[in-house]
Amino acid sequence: YFIHYHLGVQPDSSLEIMKAGSVLRKAKSRIWRGHRHYRLMEDCKTIAYKSSWAMNSYSTSDVEAVREGHESEVFLSVADEFPPERCFTLVFRGRRGNLDLVADTAEEAQAWIQGMQTLIENLENMGESQKLDQWVSDLFLKADINKDGRISFKEVRRLLKLLNMDMNEDHASSLFKMADKTQTGLLESEEFVQFYKMLTQRMDVLELFQDYSSDGQTLSHCDLEEFLREEQLEGDRSHDYALELIKRYEPSDTGTVSHCLDGFLMYLTSADGAIFNPEDLRLFQDMTQPFSHYFISSSHNTYLLEDQLKGRSSIEAYIKALRRGCRCLEIDCWDGSNGEPVVYHGHTFTSKILFKDVIATVAKYAFKTSEYPVILSIENRCNAEQQKIMAQLLKDILGDMLLKTTVDGKVNVLPSPEDLKGKVLVKGKKIGGLEDADNPGGGEVSDEDDSAEQRRDSLTNESLPSDSKKSKRNLTKELSDLVIYCKNENFTNFEDSRINGKPYDISSFSESKARKIIKESAADFIQHNTRQITRVYPSGLRTDSSNFCPQDMWNVGCQMVALNFQTAGLEMDLNDGLFSQNNHCGYVLKPEILRHSEQHFNPDRPQDLLIQVISGQQLPKVNNKEGSIVDPFVRVEIYGVPSDQAKQETSYIENNGLNPCWNETLEFVVHTPEVALVRFVVEDYDMATKNDFIGQFTLPFSCIQSGYRHIHLLSKDGTSICPSSLFVHINITEAS
């Protein structure tokens, strides 16, 4: 009962079939396929399966999505062997590969598809408090080694190590005895919840509660209103907001201290009490400005899951990028056999995928995360015949989604993201301009594309493949005509662009070229980016698919800063942080100082940012060695204009990942808050070697809520590591 209650799982025929178990065929390739018995455990959160050598399992919370039919590369490669109604794919979070399964019947496949969708929806609909409850139920199951529904003190001691806490044994024993109401020397599930609450009692929150409680026992409407006004800086809405929060989070009307404190804690750990302003998470920006006025979430070498020399090309990489909110995808097109254009990293050992499969994937997933336009940045290395095939495939597969004409005849001004909702745009070379609608045929265009400059980064001219020495390439009219508003144009200089450039011209620079321009002519670069779009991509030397820091490019208004989405780390944290606002739609309106040519970049409102790092909660272990416990510290990093780049850190706390307390204040002056990002990083201190990463959270300075706030940490891959969090107090004031 305890586990089902916390999971919120209701009886469901699909789940019952999953619990009974099914023999499913795991499809890995045309050659290897194996039968395994898969079964949903009674806890409704673990799927166990038996391979030829051992029992294994995975958590249903690791599954991001379930796909029906031939919706993976494996199934596409063996489509003739298995009917689509018996096939489904489990997609895991992070970097783990998909699981492609085939059921014996269509009905059995549907049961697994619907059951998994139910479990995924249950998780998505959980609040932070419910997620914590589920986490506690997980702990109980993990501690209950002999699975008798009760845990001993010996099992609890082992659990404390797993919980990242080195606790005095006498103190742990005392808490255990207090929770053991039945005095059996064993804790049942409800007693374990009580033990956990005592173990993790939030003294920091209790002190705050008592500071604002007028009677020291409860938090009245007036008390909460005062807290919201004084600490959370909610202003005039504090009165009504307090009523709303009481209604939303007060778990009981008995008025006892524990119930009031529970409600207060529920508020502080909820989205309302998070550091990210909920108003900025919704679609709140003006989406009717020319789309050159927006930062656009952009991917480089989108087709790659790994490195650029021998990594795997995959349609899965496109799905992952689109689900992450990416709006500009890169497609490197080369001549394939049998007249089928292929996509891969040319002149390398990366695998190849069909152009038509990429476009079919775009058609299916383009607008699931965001309804705003998707831009296909096409690197065209195909002959005339296959270019015509590409153009026809784009039209046939995308249909009305493909933008084929200008919007309301607009040529001298770019349409807005709102104008282009639900549309796919092709970015590439074009013969003539948008004004030359009657161009009779194909022609030659410059061969200077991104890949040519990338190869110059990494090779000497003598060693370049012969085709990249050509200065011209034939472009067919069929493909040229599909380039609307996103015409690749070689950059000469800023004066030439100002006089002769069109709003729909897009210049592309490698990171090294962009840095050189920023160093020499930053002001001109900003002005250029108020008129037309710039794309910046990683150096060709980055064969490991590493990334450059995008902040320097955003500082001068570059709209498309293309990163390797497949590579986790600081750079993608910044990208995710910037684009997490505005409903994660992939378009963020640039600050006014970067949008208007008549304005000069002259920030004049520096702000003081004071961050009191109070405590941490349930930080994950980073080392699975027996007895290993983290020594966590927090570093706060500011990314923005050069004068704002800064980082400070707390001291480290020895042997406590469960509830470390720092109570240290870090202070920053932010001169240009409009473009600043703030990154909170937790690491495990190690005197001898490099510190281990524990978790992070990045957000725009402009989206920070003041007051007492929780920061819900993310993994290196950018996925949630609930219930890991930091508790901080934020104070932002005008700098004196």
TrEMBL record:
C2 domain mapped to chain residues: 595-715
Primary enzyme class: hydrolase
Catalytic activity: a 1,2-diacyl-sn-glycero-3-phospho-(1D-myo-inositol) + H2O = 1D-myo-inositol 1-phosphate + a 1,2-diacyl-sn-glycerol + H(+); a 1,2-diacyl-sn-glycero-3-phospho-(1D-myo-inositol-4,5-bisphosphate) + H2O = 1D-myo-inositol 1,4,5-trisphosphate + a 1,2-diacyl-sn-glycerol + H(+)
Entry's EC annotation: 3.1.4.11
Keyword presence, Nucleus: yes
Compartment(s) of residence: Cytoplasm; Endoplasmic reticulum; Membrane; Nucleus
Cofactors demanded by this protein: Ca(2+)
GO function term, MF aspect, one: phosphatidylinositol-4,5-bisphosphate phospholipase C activity
Lineage: superkingdom: Eukaryota
Membrane topology summary: Peripheral membrane protein
Chain ranges of the PH domain: 16-121
Chain intervals for the UniProt region annotation (Disordered): 433-472
Domain EF-hand, residue spans: 131-166, 167-202
Domain PI-PLC Y-box positions: 479-595
GO biological process: intracellular signal transduction; lipid catabolic process
Major localization listed first in the record, in broad terms: cytoplasm
Pfam family, one: EF-hand_like
InterPro entries: C2_dom (IPR000008), C2_domain_sf (IPR035892), EF-hand-dom_pair (IPR011992), EF_Hand_1_Ca_BS (IPR018247), EF_hand_dom (IPR002048), PH-like_dom_sf (IPR011993), PH_domain (IPR001849), PI-PLC_fam (IPR001192)
Keywords assigned: Calcium, Cytoplasm, Endoplasmic reticulum, Hydrolase, Lipid degradation, Lipid metabolism, Membrane, Metal-binding, Nucleus, Repeat, Transducer
GO cellular component: endoplasmic reticulum; nucleus; plasma membrane
Name recorded for this polypeptide: Phosphoinositide phospholipase C
